[in-house]
Design a protein that fits this description.
The chain is α/β, with parallel strands linked by helices. It folds into 2 domains: about 10-255, P-loop containing nucleotide triphosphate hydrolases (Rossmann fold), CATH 3.40.50; about 260-470. The chain has helices at about 10-20, 25-40, 55-65, 80-85, 115-120, 150, 155-165, 175-180, 195-200, 205, 230-235, 245-250, 260-270, 285-300, 310-330, 340-345, 350, 360-365, 365-385, 390-400, 410-420, 425-430, 440-455; strands at about 70-75, 95, 130, 135-140, 155, 175, 185-190, 210, 220, 225-230, 250-255, 405, 460-465, 465-470, 495, 500. A 5-stranded parallel β-sheet has the order 4-7-10-1-11. A hairpin with a 2-residue loop joins strand 15 and strand 16. The radius of gyration is 34 Å and the shape is elongated. About 35% of the residues are buried.
């Protein structure tokens, strides 16, 4: 961050504004003009926000250019809070304020009694404080226990008593979060969880641009940009949000889960903590499988679509998979740390807590659902890497009675030694996008990928006791055996049949 402007007094500030050295404008105009400058120079609007370039970001830019308050609607893990916090990058780097002001009073037009008193008493000699852009963003998570005093403000009797003020004095006010966001951005997360009477308290600031403090007839024409986030189901449900408040929100922008696995991989690579001090190499097929997990879960009928599957899930899964690989590498004394597909199974605890299941899924169990999702993800990624590969020699080796006992803690040397007995397995593993000089841990990860892919497609099997082995033969229902007739005690009841007697036959 650069240093603030070398303007120390109110008189110097007045001169700088009159000469155009310092721009003096409302916060919505400030954000709008800075956004327009980025568009003009073709700069990235919101660095770090991936996958929304053609959908969310254009709508967001339109709302800002229209100087609207807006709301982001989306399921969990769709970067709503990250987008709101990224709005600070559209603010000016420094803002001149009255020093000591609780509501960031403009030295040229102070709102509070404190700010007006200082300007009146000190005049052009009043010192100027500079506020960085990060301090101009205030965020509040809406909860049912939030009060109007928290959001707007109230009379503070303790403050009045300590200062010897009357309760009706404007100087005895306690300002809430909204006035403290004056000349900045105020964000409310999960808006529908805000109590109805608190939502009513936001009417004035959204329409008329002011708030009124309870207990004293003061009007504060705040300069603030208000933004919200919410879950679509809660936002549209009757009784969750007051209709007049919805009417005052200028733009409703819908976020979504990523449509491209490549974009999802970029986000996970950006957010996941994989720098462990030791060299870590995550193969592409492991990253793809981790992302495909989320795509599979979002399509699975047993997973609750209303809750969604957060992008945090693949981030957590990758971190846990790397941790399991790190544990193996430390025990075996290997480098680099290379996670395998089997490490994703070790990361199941980071999945199950992030899946909201329907009734059918609850009956099956979160752990079993997670395992099935991993197998489906591995199968899809495996097809992408080996669309036309001939796996018959490998499969036949297992079908003829071969087996490999490979656990998730098996060293890379041990994996390659065991895999060397299977014709074509190591060569096939190197075709999974590995470099020609790939180290042993990376080749071992490729071997594991081939084995897990064949297992996911039910061409071979894997069990805890026997490791990898041939697929179990499909057992067809045996034809009912013809059993000898069983004579019953009433066999005397014979029916004539031609010239002889025919016995009744009963089969059990």
């Amino acid at each position: 961050m650069s240093a603030p402007p070398r303007i120390e007094t109110l008189g110097q500030l007045r001169t700088a504004v009159s000469q155009g050295a310092i721009r003096h404008r409302p916060v919505k105009d400030e954000v709008r003009e800075n956004l327009a400058a980025r568009l003009r120079h073709k700069d990235a609007l919101f660095p770090g926000i991936i996958g929304y370039e053609e959908t969310v970001i254009p709508q967001l830019a339109n709302a800002i250019l229209a100087r609207h308050h807006f709301i982001l609607l989306g399921l969990r893990g769709q970067a709503k809070t990250r987008i709101l916090r990224a709005l600070t990058t559209l603010l000016d780097e420094w803002l001149a304020v009255v020093p000591g002001s609780e509501i960031n009073d403009d030295p040229l037009a102070p709102l509070s009694a404190y700010g007006r008193q200082r300007v009146r008493e000190e005049g052009d000699d009043m010192p100027i404080a500079w506020l960085p852009r990060e301090a101009r963003y205030i965020e509040k998570l809406a909860t049912p226990d939030v009060t109007i005093a928290d959001m707007i403000g109230d009379i503070d009797p303790i403050k009045a008593a300590r200062s010897g003020l009357q309760l009706g004095s404007e100087l005895s006010m306690h300002f809430g979060l909204l006035p403290r966001a004056n000349r900045g951005i105020f964000a409310v997360n999960e808006l529908p969880d805000l109590a109805g009477k608190i939502q009513v308290g936001l009417f004035n600031i959204l329409q008329e641009g002011d708030v009124q403090i309870k207990g004293y007839p003061v009007r504060l024409p705040l300069d603030v940009m208000v933004v919200f986030s919410a879950n679509p189901e809660d936002y549209t449900a009757r009784g969750k949000i007051i209709t007049p408040l919805k009417d005052r929100i200028g733009a409703e922008i819908r976020t979504h889960y990523l449509e491209s696995r490549a974009d999802a991989m970029k986000i996970t690579a950006q957010e996941a903590w994989t720098d462990r001090g030791e060299p870590v190499h995550v193969p592409s097929f492991v990253r793809e499988t981790v992302e495909e997990l989320a795509f599979q879960a979002r399509q699975d009928r047993r997973v609750d679509k209303r809750s969604g599957v957060s992008q945090r899930m693949p981030i957590s899964v990758l971190e846990c998979a790397v941790s399991n690989a790190e544990r193996r590498a430390l025990a075996a004394g290997e480098a680099p740390v290379v996670p395998r597909i089997i490490d994703i199974y070790a990361a199941l605890p980071s999945m199950t807590g992030k899946l909201e299941l329907e009734y059918e899924g609850e009956l099956r169990g979160a752990d079993q659902i997670a395992r099935e999702l991993v197998r489906a993800a591995v199968s899809n990624v495996f097809d992408g890497h080996f669309p036309d590969a001939d796996m018959r020699p490998i499969v036949e080796w297992f079908d003829l009675g071969g087996s490999l006992n490979l656990g998730d803690l098996e060293s890379a040397t041990g994996v390659l030694k065991e895999a060397g007995a299977v014709e074509g397995l190591v060569d096939m593993a190197r075709r999974a996008g590995l470099p020609a000089d790939a180290p042993a841990p990376l080749v071992a990860a490729g071997v594991d990928f081939v084995l897990e892919g064949l297992c996911a497609q039910k061409k071979i099997s894997r069990s805890d006791g026997r490791g990898y082995h041939g697929a179990e033969p499909v057992r067809r229902p045996a034809q009912a055996e013809r059993r000898p007739p069983v004579l019953t005690p009433d066999d005397d009841d014979d029916e004539p049949s031609g010239g002889g007697r025919k016995k009744k036959r009963y089969y059990n």
